[in-house]
Design brief:
Elements: H1 11-23, H2 25-29, E1 39-43, H3 51-57, E2 62-67, H4 70-79, E3 84-87, E4 97-103, H5 112-120, E5 123-134, E6 140-142, H6 146-161, H7 172-178, E7 182-193, H8 198-214, H9 217-222, H10 228-240, E8 247-258
Helix pairs in contact: 1-8, 6-10
Length: 265
Amino acid sequence: MDTTYVHGYTAPEARRLGDQADTLAELLHAGTAYPAGSRVLEVGCGVGAQTVHLAARSPDAHLTAVDVSEESLAEARRRVPGVDFRQADLFDLDGEYDHLFVCFVLEHLPDPEKALAHLKTLLRPGGTITVIEGDHGSAFFHPRSEHAQAAIDCLVRLQAEAGGDGLIGRRLYPLLDRAGFGDVVVVPRTVYADASRPDLVTGFTRDTFTAMVEGVGETAVARGLVDADGWARGIRDLHRTTREYGTFHYTFFKGTAQRIPGGAS
């Protein structure tokens, strides 16, 4: 899986991932629980930010979580004891599972359809996959700011240059369908934050989304995508959306599908 993780592996990034997972746990994980004894594979678990919630919602499932980064896995093992954590590349995975969970992984891959096709081979016939991705093009906010939008666009461009797709959420249905899954259903999971929702303003608008954009600032300026003053203005304007009359909207997409019994492997 030859790709570059655009957000990096820093301690602030690990904290951001944890903030995101905790703030959005109900939004993203609602409806996802696995039966006792079922074999569940989480692909690309990173620091275990989502694994915490998977384990809590399905305490009697057999949960295996894999990632390419041993550094991230060390943090995941500390965060979520009792899970079978393994270092592995997605395309080297084998075995058979009842359910797969893939969250914020496809956006970083140069060929997400190929990745999904391989993951399908790991499912027993009738087994299910759950895929969650964001879409940075779904971000809109008040007060409106061209500088803030330009900063978001820098993140999208840098992710594309690294082989990923920050707009992948809107592609989940065709990706799952072309990979050969059946019963594909994709639903939007929308975050909307204003002053009446202070936990979301802090946990999502400030500590998740704006922090994610801020994290690529040095690279964006060094690459000449924006000058330092323009970047600083864009980040200031994103923070303005967290104040009294600011608002922020973002959509995640959650797809579920299954490996059809008797279908092609």
